[in-house]
Q: What sequence folds into this?
């Protein structure tokens, strides 16, 4: 699985710490991590928590990654931003138990973590344990196991009967945004390099190529 890490501006200085913990744990299970920034709070290219969902949606829809790890001060804003998009199912995790239950019951494709609230002494240990319980088993196994089939049915109904019916297609959502703002969000070296390496052909990929004038 390819994992995308996205940090927003208020917690950008924790990017290195989060990346180290994520690489350590995710790599142990054969996953690859790509870092989309922000890298420091002094970066000239800014990503606000309200924009995290746009970036996550593009990354997932173009096949640049299979899963997104993100967050903000509380973890709530980034989660809301992600879930605004039809193709993103983002959970919230502040503890290893949160992460485990999300992976087994909800089996989404993004997780939002609070990187300021209650992030004090020993938080790097909690972060490693959170990633451990998120990635140490296949998603969707169910908890308790006897409810696995019912939980799977609920997930499918949530996507097909609710989320997919109530939200715009990704391309429609992207073209509805202010195009200058969207271009500014995506027009930075690290994103474009990763896009060229990993984006799969499709209508959103073609749209982004045109937007950023990429060959």
A:
């Amino acid at each position: 699985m390819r994992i995308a890490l996205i940090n927003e501006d208020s917690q950008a200085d924790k990017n290195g710490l989060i990346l180290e913990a994520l690489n350590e744990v995710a790599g142990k299970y054969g996953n690859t991590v790509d870092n989309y920034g922000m890298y420091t709070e002094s970066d000239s290219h800014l990503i606000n928590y309200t924009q995290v969902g746009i970036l996550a949606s593009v990354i997932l829809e173009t096949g640049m990654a299979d899963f997104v790890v993100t967050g903000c001060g509380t973890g709530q804003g980034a989660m809301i931003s992600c879930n605004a998009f039809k193709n993103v199912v983002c959970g919230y995790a502040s503890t290893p138990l949160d992460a485990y239950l999300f992976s087994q019951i909800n089996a989404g494709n993004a997780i939002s973590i609070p990187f300021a609230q209650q992030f004090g002494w020993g938080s790097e240990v909690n972060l490693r344990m959170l990633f451990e319980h998120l990635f140490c088993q296949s998603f969707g196994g169910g908890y308790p196991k006897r409810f696995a089939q019912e939980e799977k049915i609920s997930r499918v109904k949530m996507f097909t009967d609710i989320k997919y019916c109530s939200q715009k297609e990704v391309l429609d959502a992207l073209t509805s945004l202010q195009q200058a703002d969207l271009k500014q969000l995506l027009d930075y070296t690290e994103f474009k390099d990763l896009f060229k390496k990993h984006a799969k052909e499709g209508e959103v990929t073609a749209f982004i190529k045109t937007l950023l004038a990429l060959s």
User: Anything to note?
Assistant: The chain has a mean pLDDT of 96. Residues 122 and 186 are 34 Å apart (CA to CA).
